[in-house]
Design a protein that fits this description.
Layout (H helix, E strand, L loop, with lengths): L13 E3 L6 E3 L18 H28 L3 H7 L9 H19 L26 H34 E2 L2 E4 L8 E4 L3 H28 L3 H12 L7 H27 L8 H13 L5 H8 L2 H22 L3 H34 L2
Antiparallel strand pairs: 1-2, 3-4, 4-5
Helix pairs in contact: 2-7, 3-7, 4-5, 4-11, 5-11, 6-7, 6-11, 7-10, 10-11
Length: 366
């Protein structure tokens, strides 16, 4: 019996690395990773080829990783943890790309639950749950502190506007507001000054808040990843040896979450072409099943409001499958961990992060 053999031509030429002066064989220096340099790499043709090749492989890696992360929860994380990383986009790189696309989309459409309004700190606080009634003083203090900060900023701004009015429009103890060409001026008593200043202040304060909070929400959401990772690490401390592994899992979860929000944003903009309440119709079967007069009390205790339940619907399955694939734990442990993580994540996003963004935005208003 003859066995066919394949002759492999090993690299015999020795090169000296231009970067570290190390002698090596092959195409890449085994000390620093620098590739062999040839003069033809300076041609315009090679430059264009490298640019096209970079974007093609980079794009294919990102799209491939997003797809696998979406349809096979935990698979890309498991590959990363076992050292298979070349075929996939790096976790941080993947997050930055998806975050950029997400905020590009929601900025265009104008729909996102991550950008709070100036009154969102009155919702989703810990003491709203029966098990955490003891946290009411903390929640009440937080709400009052943010409201106080909002009022204080308004008063400061109103004083500035009133002073500006007095400098520019007060004549003979009257408020003279010039019109077009100064021919149709409006003359008002000084008692109207606080009212006018307040209305202008309210509009200006809200405009400044809306402009700033959108910017902060795009960056501060990144701080959730270490918090998510810590929870994963604590729940599976026997399975996860390093906190960095939990950070990879948390990053992949956040990428999935932002992808779902992209779909959510698209669904919310589709009603102008299809139906006025498409999102409501999609959730209606779940609402009828879990939030009717017989099940509302149980569902509210287990899943919170219908808005929170909607998030659990797309968070829990991803985490359940990811935990099973990564840790090979029993189904009830995966289900319990997915439930706990989903409830905690919802509170972190809507109960803590939003309040932090509102407080920070108000504090930085000027």
């Amino acid at each position: 019996m003859k066995i066919k053999t394949t002759h492999i031509n090993y690299a015999t030429e020795t090169h000296t690395c231009n970067n570290c002066n190390h002698s090596f064989r092959g195409k890449v220096c085994n000390m620093c990773g620098e590739k062999i340099f040839k003069e033809k790499q300076l041609t315009a043709r090679h430059f264009i080829h490298e640019a096209i090749d970079f974007f093609y492989h980079w794009e294919s890696k990102v799209l491939k990783t997003i797809k696998l992360n979406f349809i096979k929860p935990g698979f890309v994380t498991k590959e990363n943890l076992r050292g298979v990383r070349v075929p996939y986009a790096k976790p941080v790189q993947l997050y930055l790309v998806v975050a950029f696309l997400f905020y590009l989309l929601v900025s265009k459409i104008g729909v996102t639950d991550y950008v709070p309004s100036s009154t969102d700190h009155h919702y989703y606080y810990l003491s709203a749950h029966k098990s955490f009634k003891w946290a009411y003083p903390i929640d009440n203090w937080t709400i009052n502190a943010i409201d106080s900060m909002w009022v204080k900023k308004g008063r400061t701004l109103q004083e500035q506007i009133e002073q500006q009015y007095q400098e520019d429009f007060v004549q003979n103890n009257q408020l003279v507001i010039p019109g077009r060409g100064r021919k149709d001026s409006v003359v008002l008593g000084m008692d109207k000054l606080p009212v006018m200043a307040f209305r202008q202040m309210a509009a200006h304060r809200q405009a400044m808040f809306d402009k700033s909070v959108g910017t902060y929400s795009k960056t501060l959401i990144f701080i959730l990843i270490p918090a998510f990772a810590l929870l994963f690490f604590l729940l599976f401390f026997k399975k996860i040896k390093y906190y960095g592994a939990a950070l990879i899992l948390a990053t992949h979860f956040m990428v999935y979450n932002l992808c779902v929000y992209c779909l959510h944003a698209v669904i919310n903009v589709m009603p102008m072409y299809i139906n006025k309440n498409l999102g409501g119709w999609l959730m209606r079967p779940f609402t009828l099943l879990f939030y009717n007069k017989w099940t509302t009390s149980f569902s509210s205790f287990m899943f919170g409001t219908s808005f929170e339940f909607m998030h659990l619907l797309f968070w829990m399955p991803w985490m359940y499958i990811a935990f099973k694939r990564l840790f090979n734990t029993s189904w009830w442990q995966n289900l319990l961990a997915a439930y706990i993580c989903s409830r905690v994540f919802f509170y972190l996003i809507f109960g803590i992060l939003k309040k932090l963004m509102i407080a920070f935005t108000i504090y930085t208003l000027h």
